[in-house]
Amino acid sequence: MELDNLLKEERLSGASLLILANKQDIKGALTPAEIAKVLNLEAMDKTRHWKIIGCSAYTGERARCCLADLHA
């Protein structure tokens, strides 16, 4: 999987992973838990911190707070 290979690069060692799961306003969109399962994040190195936040750029739900957290 491309994400897995990317995260194995030495320059990303110890980097945290934040995934913004956009389009949560659309019926049938994968939930953050489903995305974690598809990406097999639970099997990732336990020293890497990761989080998936569901959001919607269309409705603004959680999108603004996520972007504000990135700037903090």
TrEMBL record:
Tagged with keyword Nucleotide-binding: yes
InterPro entries: ARL2/3, P-loop_NTPase, Small_GTPase_ARF/SAR
Organism: Gossypium stocksii
GO MF annotation: an example: GTP binding
Keyword field: GTP-binding, Nucleotide-binding
Keyword Zinc: no
UniProt name for this protein: Uncharacterized protein
One Pfam family cited in the UniProt record for this chain: Arf
Residues that, per the record, bind GTP: N22, K23, Q24, D25
